Amino acid sequence: MDCLREIQGKQAHDPIFIEKMNTLSSRRCICVPGPLIVGAGPSGLATAACLKEKGVPSVVLERSNCIASLWQLKTYDRLRLHLPKHFCELPLMGFPTDFPTYPTKQQFVDYLEAYATKFHIEPRFNETVSQAEFDTTLGFWRVKSLGRNGEGTEYVCRWLVVATGENAESVVPEMEGKGEFCGDIRHTSLYKSGEEFRGKRVLVVGCGNSGMEVCLDLCNHNARPSLVVRDTVRTANSSP
Hints:
EC number: 1.14.13.168
Cofactor: FAD
Oligomer: single chain
Pathway: Plant hormone metabolism; auxin biosynthesis
InterPro entries: Auxin_biosynth/cation_transpt, FAD/NAD-bd_sf
Keywords: Auxin biosynthesis, FAD, Flavoprotein, Monooxygenase, NADP, Oxidoreductase
Number of strands: 9
Distance between the termini: 63 Å
């Protein structure tokens, strides 16, 4: 029994269900026959493709206006995959053979676009999920979203897949004296290129992949970076 027929059956025999469904009248309600996937990044796309391969339809919601928004909108220009490409390919479709071992940011985005096209994945863009709740009376998830113009939609589905990513939101800690500092304080999600920092002194906090690569990029653009880290940096030759 599909989602719509099941809802109609409950509506005809369950007065509590009828009362709950009446609360949806103020917004558009869409019954999803398969899983609802939140996020059109690599994980969301891979989930949708694998479901489609098994004949299971799904709906993908994405709050931005493109797939892989973290890669397209919140990464620096020189970014490459930090692992060899065969570790990063999505299910059912490998990288093009002419791609380098460590594809560039644009090559990875092109690969994801081709992946979505191949599996006919068409996310609903500019839809921000504001609430997701499993309704025990209905036996379905009720997921509320807001569109770009503020219009509300409620999706009713049996299965919900959250693929919003672990780095979707930047974390900027509170720092003493931050309010008195007259310079630019920027999270790496807003950093694009060292060109705008040419000749300037820049303090980079953290020596993970992003911190080290931003430092290199600043050096390549003749900026003067310094690096501060929280703990001792260990190398292969460090003594215990």
